[in-house]
Amino acid sequence: MADGARYPRALLLGASVVSFALLMGDAAVAQTADTQETDRPSERKKQAKRKSAKPQAEQQASAPVLNAYAQVGRAPVQALDTITVAASKTEERAIDALAPVSVVTLEQIQGRQASTVGDLLYNIPGVWVQNRGDEPSTAINIRGLQDFGRVAVVVDGARQNYQRTGHFANGSFFLNPELIAGIDIVRGPTANIYGSGAIGGVASFRTKDIEDVVRPGERWGVDAKTILGTNYGRALGSVFGGVHVNPNVDVFAGGTYSTQENYKDGTGYEVANTGNRLNRGIGKLTVRPADGHEVKLGAIFQENIYSVGQPPRRAGDPNSTNANGTNNLNGTSIYATNVKNYTTTLGWKYSKPEDKWFDWDAKVYWNRTDNDQIKTGHTTTTASTYCGGVPGNAVSGCIGSNRGYLLDTIGIDVHNTTRFETYDWRHAVTYGLDAFQDKVSTEVFAEPPR
Questions:
Q1: Domain count, the chain
Q2: DSSP structure class, residue 116
Q3: Integer-rounded Cα radius of gyration of the chain
Q4: Could you read off the pLDDT of 193-204 as tens digits, one per residue?
Q5: Total-model pTM
Q6: CATH code for position 14
Q7: Distance between CA atoms of 149 and 160, rounded to whole angstroms?
Q8: Does residue 47 lie within any of the structural domains?
C-alpha cells in the first residue's frame, strides 16, 4: 500500500487600500519657433546662401524606413513616449513616474528572441533573475529581495504566487516570452500600491492582445513565428490572430509550442535534463457595451513537461572533479515533472476624458499552478529497505513514487482615479482595494505504488 498525505491550508489573505498622487500643473514654456521670419539683413543673406533642396530621388533614398508605410497609403509611424501604469495604476510617462520604473516594450521583446523571461530582464538596473537549466520557471530578485511575496509578480493583473521550499527559489512563476507584450518593473517599496507585502517591488507582465497583432485601420491580422536551433535541437512555433468583429467586439487567440533537447556546455558534454516541451494557449474577448466602458475576458493555459535534477557526472567529465581530483558532484534526485498553469481574468474599465470623478479599473482573477512529479532517479542505485527494494529514502521518496503541489489564487483588484483642480494645481487621487487568497494543497507518496 502507498502511504499518502494531503495537507490543505490557506496561506495568505492580504489587502491594500489607497494610493495618492499629487500632480503639479505644467508650467507653460514659450519657445521661439525655428521657422520664425526675421527682419535682420544678416539672416536674410544666410537664407539666400542656403543650398537648394535635394532632388526627389535623393530625398527618398535618405528618408527613414518608416516612410515605406506612406508609399502604400499608410501614415508614417510616430514614436510615442513609453507609458506605464505600474507605479501608480494610472497611465503616465515612465520618465515622469515618481518611482524607479523600467519598461520593456514589445519592440524590445521581439528583437531579443528570448527563450526565457530572464533574457528579457537581464539588463534592467537592480533586477536579477534566478533560472535553472533544468526548469523553465523564473524567480525575480529586486534590489536583493525575493521570495515569500516580497516581489509581487502579476500577469494581466493576476498574481503569480506559486512557491515551495527546496534547494532553489522559494517563489517562482511560469511564463513563456512568446506570450509577453510588455513588462513594467517597479523597484522598491513604492510598489506597496499592490499591497500585501510587496516591499521589494513589482514585476507586471502584459500578455499579447489584439492591438499587438492587428495594425491600426485594419480589421484582422495574424502573427506567425518559427525558430529552429542546432545547439540543443531547439524548435519553436507560434501563431497569434485577432479580428475586430465590429467596433465594439474584439476576439484574440493564439498559441505557441516549443521543444528542445539537452544542450552541451562549453567542454562539449551534454547537460542532463535541460530539455523540455512547452505548450501555451491564450484567448481574449473584448466587449465595449457603452461609451467609455470596456469589458475583457482573458484565459491563459500553460503546460511545462521536463525533468528536474542532475545525475552523477559521467566518468571523464572535467566538471566532475575539484582541484584535488576527487569527485564532488554525486548528483541529485531526479523528477519527471508536469506543471500546468491556468490564469483567468475578467476586467471592467471605464474612462472618459470629460468625466473627472470616475476612471476605474476593476478586475477579478483566478490563477492555478499544478505541479505533478514522479521520482525517476536517486543519488545512488542501492536498493532501500524503506522503499521495498528500490533506490530511495524517507526524505526524498522512492523511485516510482509521486508527489504534487497545487496552489489556487483568487483575487480582486479595484481602483478608481478622481481628478480635480485648485487654481493652477491639478490633482489626481487613486484609491481602491486589492485582496487575494492563496489555497495550497500537497500530495506525497513516500513509497512507490505496488
A1: 1
A2: S
A3: 27
A4: 665 667 788 899
A5: 0.74
A6: 2.170.130.10
A7: 9
A8: no
